[in-house]
């Protein structure tokens, strides 16, 4: 995946660098290492050497990632190890299922299946702190060139836009404006999640034509139009997927882990799953895209609101760079009190939220499940799921809402339970701590499937988790 985006010469250099690192690693544990596909390797070594790997927590993972950073590509290694079986067939099965698990949990980690126990090493925990800003700078420069060559720039978020999507979109709007280009954010209709901010922006001088309707876009497109997609990379999640078909030059900036579905024709992709939010990514880009960005206080506020919503006020997925971004936005005039006010609820939604919390059932494993009254919406169930996490003993929460023929589910976790894996079983997705799903089935059925998925999840994770 990393190599697909680089030119041939560089690809060869990167490949040989990876191979060098891996064969050094193999010889350090006296392993037989064999490449069996473009990006796959097979190794056999003695149980005694495995102890060493566990002691240094598979530091080859860091070495490969650092190699990538030096060469400005995102390289990660995922390892599955099988141990303590009576025969090679079983060992291979263990290793394969461990590898599946490593990839399923986001890669960049090692999973060891020793008999019926499973151990995890590496992965996202330290990756947040390890990211360098090299990539943000490289992307910013490439993006600047693309914007400069464009006629008009259109910016699109995901369906049912949230503060993160809107904040990132406004940040990109500023970048285009500072580069002397006309840019629009495509938005037909605001929604409850962003209403406050949209109203505030529309009431501010200079933003009267910031938003544009999707129908109008269609008449304005030419071969030099540029589409910047923020906060998603899945075509089916876009607010106006049909526009992707009409514009050839596309940029994707997202912080969600790559799913199967992707905007394949994108010219430039900045996918950084370890960033807290699309707003954080855009804030970094803004610091490199022009000499001195002319970010307005309301724009800085929108970006800060985006970071705040995706990190639950700097609690989850928050790395040192998240604070650096926030600090930059504060300097540019983002007012933390105004941001807080954007999150205020009206009394009616607060009462619905309280009802959801009151209805919650807390299972033995610390999972809270609640069914929402029909008057709620996506935002309220997400907030209610967050609220459930403030209850002692609750490790993860799921709130279900009947919406027409669909049941919407909002999943949240403190970090021990991977709600992404659970909701993926129901066709949803997201992150370890924040995930969602939409299921076209009756509530009763969805509730049963969810409980089954939770049960399976705990069985799969094993006792070690
Ligand atoms: Mn986001």
Automatic annotation (TrEMBL):
Residues 153-307 form the DDH domain. GO terms for molecular function: nucleic acid binding. It comes from the Bacteria. Pfam families: DHH (PF01368), DHHA1 (PF02272), GGDEF_GdpP (PF24898). Residues 373-460 form the DHHA1 domain. InterPro entries: DDH_dom, DHH_sf, DHHA1_dom, Oligoribo/pAp-PDE_c-di-AMP_PDE. This is Exopolyphosphatase. It comes from Caldanaerobacter subterraneus. The lineage of its organism: Bacteria, Bacillati, Bacillota, Clostridia, Thermoanaerobacterales.
């Amino acid at each position: 995946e990393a190599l697909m985006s680089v030119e041939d010469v560089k690809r060869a250099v990167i490949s040989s660098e990876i191979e060098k690192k891996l064969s050094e690693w193999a010889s350090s544990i006296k392993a037989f290492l064999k490449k069996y596909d473009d990006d796959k390797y097979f190794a056999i070594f003695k149980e005694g050497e495995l102890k060493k790997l566990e002691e240094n927590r598979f530091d080859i993972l860091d070495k490969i990632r650092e190699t990538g950073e030096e060469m400005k590509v995102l390289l990660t290694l995922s390892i599955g190890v099988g141990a303590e079986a009576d025969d090679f067939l079983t060992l291979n099965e263990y290793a394969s299922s461990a590898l599946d698990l490593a990839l399923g949990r986001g890669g960049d980690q090692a999973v060891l299946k020793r008999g019926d126990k499973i151990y995890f090493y590496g992965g996202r925990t330290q990756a947040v702190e390890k990211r360098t800003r090299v990539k943000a700078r490289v992307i910013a420069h490439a993006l600047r060139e693309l914007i400069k060559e464009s006629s008009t720039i259109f910016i699109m978020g995901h369906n049912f836009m949230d503060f993160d999507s809107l904040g990132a979109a406004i940040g990109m709007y500023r970048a285009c404006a500072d580069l002397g280009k006309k840019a629009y954010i495509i938005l037909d209709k605001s929604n409850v999640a962003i209403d406050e901010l949209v109203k505030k922006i529309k009431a501010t001088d200079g933003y009267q034509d910031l938003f544009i309707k999707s129908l109008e876009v269609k008449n304005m497109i030419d071969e030099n139009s540029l589409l910047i997609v923020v906060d998603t990379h899945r075509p089916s999640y876009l607010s106006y997927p049909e526009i992707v078909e009409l514009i050839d030059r596309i940029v994707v900036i997202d912080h969600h882990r790559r799913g199967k579905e992707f905007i394949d024709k994108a010219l430039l992709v900045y996918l950084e799953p370890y960033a807290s939010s699309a707003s954080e990514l855009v804030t970094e880009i803004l610091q490199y895209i022009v000499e001195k960005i002319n970010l307005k206080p309301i724009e800085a506020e929108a970006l800060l609101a985006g970071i705040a919503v995706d990190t639950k006020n700097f609690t989850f997925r928050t790395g040192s760079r998240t604070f650096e971004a926030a600090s930059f936005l504060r300097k540019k005039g983002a007012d933390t009190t105004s941001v807080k006010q954007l999150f205020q609820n009206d009394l009616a939604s607060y009462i619905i939220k309280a009802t959801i919390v009151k209805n919650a059932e807390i299972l033995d494993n610390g999972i809270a499940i609640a069914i929402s009254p029909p008057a709620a919406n996506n935002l309220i169930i997400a907030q209610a799921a967050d609220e459930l996490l403030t209850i002692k003993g609750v490790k993860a929460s799921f709130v279900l809402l009947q919406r027409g023929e669909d049941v919407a589910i909002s999943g949240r976790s403190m970090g021990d339970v991977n709600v992404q894996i659970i909701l993926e079983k129901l066709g949803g997705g997201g992150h370890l701590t924040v995930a969602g799903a939409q299921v076209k089935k009756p509530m009763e059925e969805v509730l049963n499937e969810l409980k089954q998925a939770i049960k399976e999840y705990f069985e799969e994770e094993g006792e070690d988790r």
